[in-house]
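At your convenience, could you comment on the folded chain following this short note?
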Amino acid sequence: MALGHGDVHLPDALSRKYPNAGKEWAWQYVFPANNLSVDPRSGLVRRHHISDSAIQEMIKKAAKRAWISKNGSVHTLRHSFATHLLMNGVNIREVQELLGHKNVETTMIYTHVLRDMSHAPRSPLDALLADVKKPGKNITFDNGD
């Protein structure tokens, strides 16, 4: 943006109604591309978003660097997101809307994981944090002074 390439293409009606909206922070890409390109519609030099295949490749490389032997993908993160929402008590209809599913049966696929995790073990840190949240419980840490 500092170099003057932070203008994002907006649909025609929106760009006419709000001519400076494409320069506002809210419209900027979360993952901008490294390279500039010429917008074929306007002829302006702009920075587009990073391609989905580049994000997919980054996820695969990160999993490999972390020594995760299972295949991981952006879709894996989507499944994880939905499962954690349901585990934390979010209504299945809200999850359906967030994921953009037309049919709730599609979203219900994620509930099979919840059934499998009904007796999942808790880590000691989870147990400690649950204990801290109880009324009248305070845990202090000695900083060595």
About this structure: The radius of gyration is 23 Å. The chain has a mean pLDDT of 80. Residues 124 and 130 are 10 Å apart (CA to CA). The helical segments are 12-17, 52-65, 74-87, 92-99, 104-107, 111-116, 124-132.
